[in-house]
Every structure is written in C-alpha cells, then in structure tokens.
Amino acid sequence: MAKGFPVIAITGPRQSGKTTLAKAAFPDKPYLSLEDPDMRLLAESDPRGLLSRFPDGAILDEVQRAPELLSYLQTFVDAEVSPGKYVLTGSQQFGLLSGITQSLAGRVAMVQLLGFSIGELLAAKSLPAELDKLMFQGFYPPLYDRDISPGDWYTSYISTYAERDVRQLITVRDLSAFQRFLKMCAARTGQLLNLSSLAADCGITHNTAGAWLSVLEASYIVFLLRPHHRNFNKRLVKTPKLYFCDTGLAGWLMGIREPAQLAFHAQRGALFENLVVTEFLKARLNNGLPPDIYFWRDSRGLEVDLLLESGEELQPVEIKAGQTIAADFFHSLKKWGELSSRGEKPAWLVYAGDNETQNGNVTILPWRGLSKLLENI
Fold first, then answer.
1. Over the stretch 284-293, which tens digit does the pLDDT of each residue have?
2. Quick check: is 73 in a domain?
3. What are phi and psi of 362, to 5 degrees?
4. Cα separation, 135 vs 189, whole angstroms
C-alpha cells in the first residue's frame, strides 16, 4: 500500500498492535502520539507548524484525537506527492473515517488490524496447546508478550478502553446500563441480531441500543456478519449475526473466569464459531482484501455458517464445536449444495478435533489447520 498511496491509515481495536506495526514497517519515520495532551494541543493550535517540522512524513498515532490535522495533511500531501509519506493510526472508525472521507479521499489506503491470528501464533510458537485455553485467552498481543492474567487484562481493557471510547463518541448517562448492554451482547454471540429484544433486556430504547451497537462496531469490539444476498429461495433471513472481534473479551463478558469452565459451558459452541469466523475475517483483512464473508440462512432454520465470495464463486464453510465427526455435521452443506445448484463442488468443515480428513466433497479441518486453509483466502 505504501508504494502506491501517500497516506496509509491503520485502524483496529485498541491494543491490537497498530503502533508496533507502524513503527516496525516504517522504522525511519518520526513517531508522534496524539494521545499525548501536549502534542494534541500543538496539533490543534498550530497544525501547519507541526507538519512542517516533518517534511519527509511521520507516524501520527491516534490521529482521530485531532481531526483538524487531516485537513492540513491534505495540503502537505498534494504539494509533493510521495508514496508512503504519512502513516496514521486510529482505534475509532467514526472519527478517523469521517476525517479521511472529508479531507483525504483518494489519497489514503486503509488497513485494518485485528488481534493475532492462529497462523501468527503458530509461527511465533505461542499458540496454546488446548483450544479452550486459546478461546479463553483470546488474541490481543499484550496477553502474549507479558506476564499478565487474561482476567486482570480484560477487566482493565473494558474499563479503560471500551467505556472511555464510548464516552468520547456518545453521552452515556448510565454506565451500569452500558455495562449490562455489553454483557447482553456477549450472551448473544453467534446469534441473529434482535435489537428490540436486546434493548428490552437492558431496559433501554431501541434507538439507544442501535447507537450503542454502532459505537461497539466503530471501536472494533463487535462486528456484524451480514447474510448473503443471493436469492436461492424466497424465504431468506436478512438479519445480521452478532460476533465479537475477540473470543477472550466475549468470554470474559460472559462470566468465564478460567479455561476449565469452557468444557461444559452453554456458550462454548458460540465461542468456537466466533473464533473461526474471526480467523476468516483476519485472513481477508491481513491480505488487504475486503471482508467478503457472509452467512446464509432461510426462514426454516437451514443455515451455512460462512460463505466466502470470490467473484461469482461461493465457498461454503460449516463450523462445529464437537471433537468427534458426526453424520449430521454435513446436513447443512448438503442441503445448501442442492438449493444453490452447487452440487458436489468443494466445501469445508472446521471442527474442534485434531485430524484432517475428507468426506466426499467436504474437506474436514481441525482448528489448528485453519492457517493452512487461510493461506489461500
């Protein structure tokens, strides 16, 4: 991206490694953090003077904290077009994207960085041996480069980042209601989004629930998986499904306090599905591709967990949290193949076991084998 665009913008959740990535990829560029009050004051009071100090560009961290700077950045970029001159980072899509749309359209490449992937943890020899420990620990980098318990870290993360970001974006009069809303969202992981039910359970209005959910999306706490639009029959579900960007955060909000609790937890299947879906999402984003992943479900409850879109081709993926392959694992894939006239074309099934095998046209992959599959996504 830096070879073709004068500005690179790295977005993603807080603590996902945006600053580390920017510094590693551009080690010679000066680094400025706009979380620093003094630097933010300078950016707001004398943006032209600040930028003129760095004629060869710089890394501007958390640039959404000083949105006025983006307008002046346009002038500096247009005066001398130089690929990869400025690197911006931001953990809130609202502030960063609105500023970029207004000031830097056509001049900036967007890169989204979520937490580590299974493939990255494998390469670093840091992947937990047990699936339940991985789902509990999650994928945020600080949990892998320092000696801190996931419980302590997630408690701090929720209060320090999630709630602070919300206050910056919207006024929350009742913080306890918002905390309840977060936990209710976690309890609905992997389910069709029903805003009315969510609002009623939290004692808030439908509009408030919609606004809070948008903020959680903008802060990369949750994401919505959209249903695929192709009309294989006329009774398709058109409601998105709710997922968290990290299973560790979702599990903590569900009240899971140690990996052993996951063995018989009612939400274990939902968390495993969440893990696999986010791995496909990371694979797309890490390759600079749009997140063209969907699910498919009709009004009778027939569902395919993931559909990957590549041109006119659709690749179905079924996700099962069982460790033993059962005959009913293949029911949805078979039915979907008949409805879509795809027949016996290749399909994938990802499960919580350990062995890779084949069943007809379906390639069965263990969770550890995901990185092998995602190399070509």
1. 999 988 888 9
2. yes
3. -100, 120
4. 13
Domain count, the chain: 2
Q: Does 68 reside within a domain?
A: yes
348 strand-pairing partners: 317, 363
Q: Which of 47, 81, 83, 85 is nearest to 67 (CA)?
A: 47
- Show which of 71, 90, 112 is a domain's final residue: 112
Range of the domain at 57: 7-112
Residue 361, both tokens: 């046209």
Question: What are the residues facing 235 on neighbouring strands?
Answer: none
Alpha-helical (H) ranges within the chain are 18-25, 37-45, 47-52, 68-79, 93-103, 118-123, 131-137, 142-145, 150-157, 163-169, 175-187, 195-202, 206-218, 247-253, 268-286, 331-339, 370-374
Task: Give the pLDDT confidence of 35-54 residue by residue, as tens digits.
Answer: 899 999 999 999 999 999 99
pLDDT exceeds 70 at position 230: no
How far is residue 67 from each of residues 153, 164, 238, measured CA to CA in Å?
30, 18, 35
92 and 144 both lie in a single domain: no
CATH of the domain at 48: 3.40.50.300
Length of the chain: 377
Residue 350 lies in a domain: no
359: burial class by Cβ within 10 Å (0-12, 13-18, 19+)?
Answer: middle
**What is the C-alpha R_g of the chain?**
22
Q: In the beta sheet, which residues pair with residue 225?
A: 241
Q: What are the φ and ψ backbone dihedral angles of 294, each rounded to 5 degrees? A: -145, 175
- Cα(189)–Cα(269) distance, rounded to whole angstroms? 10
Q: pLDDT by residue (tens digit) across 123-180? A: 999 999 999 999 999 999 999 999 999 999 999 998 887 667 777 667 677 778 888 9
